[in-house]
Design a protein that fits this description.
By secondary structure, this protein is an alpha/beta fold. It has two domains: 6-176, HUPs (Rossmann fold, 3-Layer(aba) Sandwich), CATH 3.40.50.620; 198-319, TPP-binding domain (Rossmann fold). The protein is built from eight helices and 17 strands. It has helices at 19-31, 50-54, 74-88, 99-112, 198-204, 218-231, 274-277, 309-319, and strands spanning 6-10, 12-13, 16-17, 37-43, 60-65, 92-96, 116-120, 122-126, 129-136, 141-145, 153-157, 173-176, 207-211, 234-237, 264-268, 286-290, 303-306. Strands 7-11-6-1-4-5-12 form a seven-stranded parallel sheet, with helices on both faces. A five-stranded parallel sheet has the order 14-13-15-16-17, covered by helices on one side. The longest helix has 15 residues, at 74-88. It is elongated and about 65 Å long. The relative contact order is 0.12.
Length: 321
């Protein structure tokens, strides 16, 4: 029989907790009503991530410990998760829409023969049914997806859609899971190397310089890169600029790209279509530059400058030390 618990997968990037997992704990608590929220942690015995997880208020941490998790394949992780899902029968199971989460979640979904919605932008409950919101039709509309007949209801959620909020004096119970580690016979991980990707740096950056169609000139792009280097930031782009070979989809901000949450976001030559602005809602301070005083981007900005992006960058670079 299915219980009403909401599970959140705690992704470990070597010895660090993936921030999206903590963001999902906060969101799960917000929509849970009276449903208990469980953090699902697979870790080697050399790590103790429980103390950090507890700060974000889950009702329980289900801990699976085995030293082989330090170099486990996605198939081995999925096998362990299948065992505990079968034991506890949760209502829903949420995963970060990271490279690791997008690989692990469908493997588990296939084992459980349930539904999985990828790259969600919002979540809500209608009774015990998880409503999973994601873009479709070229990102022009948002659709609600449900899985009425199978449990757990599974979803991956994009990074930085929600904010992780600590819960003071959280009373979290740590439960040790019973499972058997089944080594995969067809694959062995020999070693791991931390990958520095544009996706990771963009979603985690504290300063982002974003370029739109109106800033797609070689001089402007070069100045934007200089400014990002001086300020310790990164360059992101709107969807049209991903057609330029010097940019990749990993650098795209917006509904079909990355969601950013920097302390400072500078928009250059961006009109402000909703497909872009949905990806910047969690930015703390937004400065926008556009030659069109009526550009919609100014409605989402804290500060605006009506003028040429190249001249703006030249002036700002002269001031930044």
């Amino acid at each position: 029989m299915t219980n009403e618990s909401i599970w959140v997968y705690i992704q470990l990037n070597q010895d660090k907790i993936e921030p999206t997992s903590l963001q999902l704990l906060t969101k799960a608590k917000q929509i849970a009503e009276d449903k208990p929220v469980w953090a699902i942690l697979l870790e080697p015995t050399t790590l103790t991530a429980e103390a950090t997880i507890q700060q974000y208020g889950p009702d329980n941490i289900l801990r699976l410990r085995d030293d082989r998790f330090a170099a486990a394949t996605d198939e081995e992780l999925a096998d362990a998760l299948e065992q505990v899902v079968t034991q506890y029968n949760p209502n829903s199971f949420l995963f970060p829409a990271t490279t690791a989460g997008r690989s692990l979640a469908p493997r588990l979904q296939a084992k459980l023969q349930t539904g999985l919605t990828a790259d969600c932008l919002d979540l809500a409950f209608d009774g015990d049914t998880l409503v999973q919101v994601k873009p479709t039709y070229g990102d022009n509309i948002m659709c609600d997806i449900i899985c009425p007949d199978r449990r757990p209801q599974m979803a991956t959620v994009r990074p930085n859609i929600f904010k992780a909020v600590r819960v003071p004096n959280s009373q979290t119970e740590v439960v040790s899971a019973t499972f058997t580690f089944h080594p995969e016979t067809t694959m062995t991980i020999l070693n791991t190397t931390r990958l520095i990707s544009q996706t990771a740096s963009l979603s985690d950056a504290q300063t982002v310089i974003a370029l739109g169609r109106g800033a797609n000139q070689p001089k402007t792009i070069e100045l934007a890169r200089q400014l990002a280097a001086k300020m310790g930031g990164v360059v992101g782009v709107t969807r049209p600029l991903t057609d330029d070979p010097q940019f990749t989809h990993d650098q795209q901000i917006g509904q079909s790209g990355q969601t950013v949450a920097p302390d400072l976001l500078i928009n250059l030559g961006i009109s402000g279509a909703v497909q872009y602005t949905v990806g910047i809602q969690n930015a703390n301070r937004i400065v926008s530059v556009n030659t069109d005083a009526t550009a919609p981007i100014f409605a989402d900005s804290d500060y605006g400058y009506v003028g040429d992006a190249t001249e703006f960058l030249e002036g700002l670079l002269a001031q930044v030390k």
